[in-house]
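Issue: ligand-bound run for S-adenosylmethionine - logging full I/O for the record.

Environment: standard queue, default settings, no custom constraints.

Inputs:
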Amino acid sequence: MSLPRTFGDALALARGQVPASEARLLLREASGASAAAIVGFPERALAPDAAARFTAWIARRAAGEPVAYILGEREFYGRRFAVSPDVLIPRPETELLVEQALARIPDGTADVLDLGTGSGAIAITLALEAPQARVTAVDISPAALAVARSNAEQLGGQVRWREGSWFSGVAGERFDLVVSNPPYVASEDPHLLAGDVRFEPRGALASGPEGLDDIRAIAGAAPDALNAGGWLLLEHGYDQGDAARAILISAGFVEVATAQDLAGLDRVSFGRLP
Ligand SMILES: C[S@@+](CC[C@H](N)C(=O)[O-])C[C@H]1O[C@@H](n2cnc3c(N)ncnc32)[C@H](O)[C@@H]1O
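Outputs:
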């Protein structure tokens, strides 16, 4: 197959295979050209190495691989996080969890725990946005923790990394704020087999028949890991707000409520330990 020789040829090759916005992004990253140049100068020559890179990326994207895994990064809270198939691709909705957490970190020091840190997106963002906080992050996956550590080295956040299952990674410790974006998809949900999600680690997504097993496990154990008056914040599915609040209340939390994401959907439920 001959390689595209110009920006215009390249976008024509991608047409019908991947959405136009993704083709433009991949062409920008493959060529180093600006978005304006790609759209404004279709006749401009594309170097052969950039053309080969772009053509290979389009084939991978057309086969379903997420753009973030192809490029090896995704933006979260204004920073570029490296991602690999060992970690969930950070979602824009999770920025709400970060905002809710930042609103609860006082000016003085606070001990903050991120459970199921994946790429480290939440923990590193909290460490950078609230440098007065002492941030610890746990994941059960050593491969995910390796990605998170490397992101912290690149981005500069001070985080203590621990391997383990939920609070067992920090047994005997107490925190002022615990945040988590745990797996919350029902194990038999057909979405797990469709689209970009099928490339992501199953252990980062599925959580029992209703998708609530990990939310229950974390909320049930959190009172023993929080200081009095401490907060637990949990991200969940758009249709899990009622269930998450009920779980928090039965675990003994007060001031239980749910915050909505930019689409107006229930996304983060929280409660305070009396
Ligand atoms: C939905 S992903 C969230 C990743 C990241 N915090 C984010 O928001 O992009 C859930 C993470 O929880 C981790 N995980 C799953 N079960 C766990 C367990 N029992 N203990 C600790 N981490 C767990 C997975 O490895 C995965 O990294």
